[in-house]
């Protein structure tokens, strides 16, 4: 097992990465102070890992409840969030109750938001079970839900007590979901570490095959990078926005098609291709680097051609992005691997990228 720490002073926490961690009582024990625990999971993950987690918690002698949510991005909303509050209140959960998010990013984001709100804040632990949630969403304390008009628009910054990333859980992950996770790995390498990006290019096939060693390295390095960005800029005053590379276009794809139509990681994969195209048009990125990015996104079995929502609709949706200020869209652009630039882009260049994105990669 490897441990990466997120250095946030009195809110610092460990990210444990390894195999067969869900069953390890000792990893949970230091982070559960109260008498009760509520596991939040969904209809897919509960039958796979629910018993394993409850068995790990049993020796701690806690009162353990489980709430099972419907599965999918389409349920990342107020109605589903309320099911968590219903369960907490029914179980008479108190201020020391610990929530445990067992599942992917949808479960983690909603559980974290519920933890931030319930009694104005109770502790929570992330047990991410998708590659995407292990490399990205479980780390850094962004929690929330979607609104029909914009992705992740309602939420809170709220850090977990610990992240327990069990690589073994990825064995049951469908290939399409694995690919969605690889998208965030590619993003992390592209924005922050040219050497890691090269490693991804060389190992993308091993990641596609779900090889444990490759996955462990990808999760560890992605978490190290994300932990250092979050430690430097927890509430996205500046630097943290680089983690949104590909997301401005990607969130527009997700909201525009209807949540759940494209997976978040698929939208990010295509969104990175679009952001790289825009970077080339603005004279920031060289064509060879753009082509490398497109190649690795394609090799990860991710889409490189954007859905034809119409340019006007893309722009409308991008204006709702959290990075937009006074309606002006901010893009995360690439200068070279490991180096980004955050800024605006002339309308003509954005229109040209949108026109190119739906016909070629
Ligand atoms: P997800 O939570 O929907 O999980 C994907 C699918 O895999 C679901 O059907 C889930 O039930 C299933 N699943 C989970 N673990 C499994 C396992 N081990 N075996 C088999 N099936 C399993 O999606 P995701 O890709 O994990 O997360 C996407 C969400 O994360 C989006 O809502 C996105 O906005 C959010 N996100 C948040 C952050 C953040 O910083 N908070 C960062 C990136 C993404
Ligand atoms: N996934 C973007 C962030 O955590 O800031």
From TrEMBL:
<feature type="domain" description="3-dehydroquinate synthase N-terminal">
    <location>
        <begin position="67"/>
        <end position="179"/>
    </location>
</feature>
<dbReference type="GO" id="GO:0003856">
    <property type="term" value="F:3-dehydroquinate synthase activity"/>
</dbReference>
<dbReference type="GO" id="GO:0005737">
    <property type="term" value="C:cytoplasm"/>
</dbReference>
<dbReference type="InterPro" id="IPR030960">
    <property type="entry name" value="DHQS/DOIS_N"/>
</dbReference>
<feature type="binding site">
    <location>
        <begin position="105"/>
        <end position="109"/>
    </location>
    <ligand>
        <name>NAD(+)</name>
    </ligand>
</feature>
<feature type="binding site">
    <location>
        <position position="151"/>
    </location>
    <ligand>
        <name>NAD(+)</name>
    </ligand>
</feature>
<dbReference type="GO" id="GO:0009073">
    <property type="term" value="P:aromatic amino acid family biosynthetic process"/>
</dbReference>
<keyword id="KW-0963">Cytoplasm</keyword>
<dbReference type="InterPro" id="IPR056179">
    <property type="entry name" value="DHQS_C"/>
</dbReference>
<comment type="pathway">
    <text>Metabolic intermediate biosynthesis; chorismate biosynthesis; chorismate from D-erythrose 4-phosphate and phosphoenolpyruvate: step 2/7.</text>
</comment>
<feature type="binding site">
    <location>
        <position position="247"/>
    </location>
    <ligand>
        <name>Zn(2+)</name>
    </ligand>
</feature>
<dbReference type="InterPro" id="IPR030963">
    <property type="entry name" value="DHQ_synth_fam"/>
</dbReference>
<dbReference type="InterPro" id="IPR050071">
    <property type="entry name" value="Dehydroquinate_synthase"/>
</dbReference>
<feature type="domain" description="3-dehydroquinate synthase C-terminal">
    <location>
        <begin position="181"/>
        <end position="324"/>
    </location>
</feature>
<protein>
    <recommendedName>
        <fullName>3-dehydroquinate synthase</fullName>
        <ecNumber>4.2.3.4</ecNumber>
    </recommendedName>
</protein>
<feature type="binding site">
    <location>
        <position position="184"/>
    </location>
    <ligand>
        <name>Zn(2+)</name>
    </ligand>
</feature>
<dbReference type="GO" id="GO:0009423">
    <property type="term" value="P:chorismate biosynthetic process"/>
</dbReference>
<dbReference type="InterPro" id="IPR016037">
    <property type="entry name" value="DHQ_synth_AroB"/>
</dbReference>
<feature type="binding site">
    <location>
        <begin position="71"/>
        <end position="76"/>
    </location>
    <ligand>
        <name>NAD(+)</name>
    </ligand>
</feature>
<keyword id="KW-0170">Cobalt</keyword>
<keyword id="KW-0520">NAD</keyword>
<feature type="binding site">
    <location>
        <begin position="129"/>
        <end position="130"/>
    </location>
    <ligand>
        <name>NAD(+)</name>
    </ligand>
</feature>
<comment type="function">
    <text>Catalyzes the conversion of 3-deoxy-D-arabino-heptulosonate 7-phosphate (DAHP) to dehydroquinate (DHQ).</text>
</comment>
<dbReference type="Pfam" id="PF01761">
    <property type="entry name" value="DHQ_synthase"/>
</dbReference>
<feature type="binding site">
    <location>
        <position position="264"/>
    </location>
    <ligand>
        <name>Zn(2+)</name>
    </ligand>
</feature>
<dbReference type="GO" id="GO:0000166">
    <property type="term" value="F:nucleotide binding"/>
</dbReference>
<dbReference type="GO" id="GO:0046872">
    <property type="term" value="F:metal ion binding"/>
</dbReference>
<comment type="similarity">
    <text>Belongs to the sugar phosphate cyclases superfamily. Dehydroquinate synthase family.</text>
</comment>
<feature type="binding site">
    <location>
        <position position="142"/>
    </location>
    <ligand>
        <name>NAD(+)</name>
    </ligand>
</feature>
<keyword id="KW-0057">Aromatic amino acid biosynthesis</keyword>
<dbReference type="GO" id="GO:0008652">
    <property type="term" value="P:amino acid biosynthetic process"/>
</dbReference>
<keyword id="KW-0028">Amino-acid biosynthesis</keyword>
<keyword id="KW-0862">Zinc</keyword>
<keyword id="KW-0547">Nucleotide-binding</keyword>
<dbReference type="Pfam" id="PF24621">
    <property type="entry name" value="DHQS_C"/>
</dbReference>
<keyword id="KW-0456">Lyase</keyword>
<keyword id="KW-0479">Metal-binding</keyword>
């Amino acid at each position: 097992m490897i441990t990466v720490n997120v250095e946030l002073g009195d809110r610092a926490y460990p990210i444990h990465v390894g195999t067969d961690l869900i069953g390890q009582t000792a990893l949970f024990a230091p982070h559960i102070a109260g008498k009760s625990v509520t596991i939040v999971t969904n209809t897919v993950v509960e039958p796979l890992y629910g018993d394993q987690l409850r068995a790990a918690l049993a020796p701690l002698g806690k009162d353990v409840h489980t709430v099972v949510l419907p599965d999918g991005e389409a349920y990342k909303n107020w109605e589903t969030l309320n099911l968590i509050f219903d369960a907490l209140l029914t179980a008479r959960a108190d201020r020391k109750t610990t929530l445990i998010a067992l599942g992917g990013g949808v479960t983690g984001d909603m559980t974290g938001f519920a933890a931030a709100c319930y009694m104005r804040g109770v502790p929570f632990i992330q047990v991410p079970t998708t590659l995407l949630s292990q490399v990205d969403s479980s780390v850094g304390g962004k929690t929330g839900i979607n609104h029909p008009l914009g992705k992740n628009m309602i939420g809170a910054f709220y850090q977990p007590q610990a992240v327990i990333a069990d690589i073994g859980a990825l064995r049951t992950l469908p290939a399409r979901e694995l690919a969605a996770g690889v998208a965030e790995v590619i993003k992390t390498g592209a924005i922050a570490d040219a050497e890691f990006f090269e490693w991804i290019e060389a190992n993308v096939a091993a990641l596609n095959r779900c090889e444990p060693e490759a996955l462990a390295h990808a999760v560890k390095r992605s978490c190290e990078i994300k932990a250092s960005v979050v430690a430097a800029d927890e509430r996205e005053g500046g630097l943290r926005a680089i983690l949104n590379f590909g997301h401005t276009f990607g969130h527009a794809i997700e909201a525009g098609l209807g949540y759940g139509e494209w997976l978040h990681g698929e939208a990010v994969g295509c969104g990175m291709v679009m952001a790289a195209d825009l970077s080339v048009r603005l004279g920031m990125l060289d064509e060879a680097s753009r082509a490398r990015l497109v190649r690795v996104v394609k090799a990860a079995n991710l889409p490189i051609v954007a859905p034809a929502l119409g340019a006007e609709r893309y722009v409308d949706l991008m204006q709702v992005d959290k990075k937009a200020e006074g309606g002006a869209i901010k893009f995360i652009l690439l200068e070279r691997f490991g180096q980004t630039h955050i800024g605006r882009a002339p309308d003509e260049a954005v229109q040209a990228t949108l026109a190119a994105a739906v016909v070629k990669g």
